[in-house]
Structure formats: structure tokens, C-alpha cells
């Protein structure tokens, strides 16, 4: 269970190089972030969690901006499963945010 006040987003796809795919880096877009300036002030350096399958979580960190429309680059500890487009992301302050409230 994730707290409802957390900022939510989706994975748009892997970061592509000229000849290869960066396996741990993905591009993501978050709700309520409209442009580059807003993404820089609200998202850079924050932790994110990708919710994969039945309760499986993959942790990452927002490392940079991509383009002008608020898309960010997220580096995960491990790679995401192959059809990663559209997977949900949630920003968290710490791992305590992932536990249900009492």
C-alpha cells in the first residue's frame, strides 16, 4: 500500500543510446509536471519506486531531465521487465512510505 499523497507517474520507455539500450535508465513522466523548470524543482534527486507484478518493487532515483515537457530520467538499481512502457511509478520520501498506515 502506498500513501495517497505521493506523486504518481508512468514509465515511457528505456533511455536509448546510438547503438544500444541503457538497461537501468528509463524515461518517465509524472502527473502535474508540465515543463522542464517544474520537473527540475520538484523531482530531481528524489527516490522513485516502480510497481511491477504482484507486489514487486524496484527502487530508483531521478537523475536528470529529458526534453522540455517535464520528462525525467530515472536510474533503477536493477533493470525493469521487458514490456516496461506504461508501468506505474511513485515518488517516495523513504521506504516507510510503502507501508500501510495504522
* Secondary structure tally: strands: 6
- Tally of structural domains: 1
* Span between termini: 11 Å
* Strand arrangement in the largest pleated sheet: 1-2-5-4-3-6
Total count of helical runs of at least 4 residues: 1
Q: How much of the sequence is in beta strands?
A: over 45%
Largest sheet: 6 strands, antiparallel, barrel
Supply the CATH superfamily name.
translation elongation factor selb, chain A, domain 4
| Rough outline | globular
H/E element order: EEHEEEE
| CATH architecture term | Beta Barrel
Summing up helix and strand content along with how strands pair, one would put the structural category as: mainly beta
Q: What is the average per-residue confidence, as pLDDT, rounded to a whole number?
A: 85
Helix content: under 10%
CATH class: Mainly Beta
Q: What do you see in this structure?
A:
Helices cover 7% and strands 46% of the residues. By secondary structure, the chain is mainly beta. The termini are close together. The mean pLDDT is 85. The longest helix is centred in the middle third of the chain and has 7 residues, at 36-42.
What is the element layout, followed by pairings?
Blueprint: E1 8-16, E2 21-30, H1 36-42, E3 47-52, E4 56-66, E5 71-76, E6 88-92
Antiparallel strand pairs: 1-2, 1-6, 2-5, 3-4, 3-6, 4-5
Amino acid at each position: 500500500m502506498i500513501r495517497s499523497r505521493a506523486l504518481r507517474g508512468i514509465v515511457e520507455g528505456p533511455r536509448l543510446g546510438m547503438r544500444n539500450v541503457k538497461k537501468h535508465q528509463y524515461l518517465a513522466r509524472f502527473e502535474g509536471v508540465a515543463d522542464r523548470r517544474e520537473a527540475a524543482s520538484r523531482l530531481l534527486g528524489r527516490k522513485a519506486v516502480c510497481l511491477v507484478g504482484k507486489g514487486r518493487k524496484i527502487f530508483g532515483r531521478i537523475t536528470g531531465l529529458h526534453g522540455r515537457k517535464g520528462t525525467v530520467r530515472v536510474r533503477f538499481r536493477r533493470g525493469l521487465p521487458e514490456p516496461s512502457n506504461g508501468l506505474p511509478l511513485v515518488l517516495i520520501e523513504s521506504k516507510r512510505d510503502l507501508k500501510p498506515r495504522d
